[in-house]
Every structure is written in C-alpha cells, then in structure tokens.
Please model this.
Amino acid sequence: MRRPGLIALALSFALAMPAAHAQLVIYRCTDASGAITLQNGTPCPKGSRQQKKVMETPSPASVTTTPPPASPSPPPAPAPVPVPAPKPAADPPAPEVVIAPRQPPPALFECQTWNGDHYFGETAQPPPRCVPLQVTGLDGTGAMAGGAACQMMEDRCQPVADDTLCDAWKQRVRALDARATFGSGEAITPAEADRIRGALAESTCAP
Model:
C-alpha cells in the first residue's frame, strides 16, 4: 500500500472521530510478510514492525460550514384584478302608445219630412217614405173595409255648415237619449245608436 493512500485513510479516521478528541494516533504495522496495516489508536500486534503517528484534529469551532446559497424567492403573485359585477339587464322599454289624433265628425244633413218634422241624417237623399192617403168610399165616407193607400214622399235635406257641425252632432245624440227615454220618434236599433254616440265621442267635437 502506498503512503498517500494511507494518509487519506488516516484522515478518514480522523473525520470519523468524535468531536471531543483533540489528537489522532495512527499505528502503521508491517507484519513478517511485509503487509502493511493502519490501526487507529491500537498498537501493532507483537512480531510486527510499528510506526506511530500523532495527528492533530481541528476543533469543531474552527470548522465552518458555508450555508448553501439561498434560493431566490419567487416573485410575488400579481394582485387580483377586481372584475366588475355584470350590470343587470335593463327592462325593455314599454311600447309607446300612439294615440291617433281626433278627426272631425262625419258630415251631417238637416232634413225635413213632408209634415214638417226635422231630423239630422248622414245622407243627402234618404229613401222616400210611403205617406198614408185618406181613402174615401163611393158613398163619400171614410168607412172602407180593408182599403188603404199611400203616396211616396221624399225628405228635403241640406248639408250642415262646418261651424255648426259639432252642435248638430250633439243635438242628434240628445235626440237619441230622448227617444230612448220617452220612446218617441222612429225606431232605431241599439247598434245604430251606439255607432252614432261613438262617432261623436271619437271626434274633435268631444269635450
């Protein structure tokens, strides 16, 4: 065995010694065959040639351990970006109610019957009326069983002026109300009466 190898082995023994020892004694033994052994603190056996070597061991305080370099700290996490809350969906706008402008009422005609009665109508030429005629018998009296006759008569009508049209329509509706209350005048259906009142209510003549 070579000497450098023995010294290295001796150093390994020294490092393995407890920290309380200040010296290391190494015995180099050579037996009769020439084999060399190193013994730590134990003398060589009899019959061997012995060499003694004392080595100083460093104190624990003199051995400084360099701490490993600190690993770089990770960069700080980015601050969370606040996400604005979604705005509530706006209610759909209410549909715009378009009110059609009122229109003037329909044209009216003031009519007069054959016997002088006046009324308002919406036609300039109402159908002719069958006016009963007085029937006289052969004896010159009116007693004639089942005899009857009439004459077709037309009403005379003229248009109502625009500046008095609203008054004429209101008067026509009042005549309907009087007819419904007192049952006078010509018969008129409820549907027709409602149509006449609606024409006035939806026109520019309505209050």
Summary: The first helix runs from residue 3 to 16. The first strand starts at residue 23 and ends at 30. The chain is about 20% helix and 20% strand.
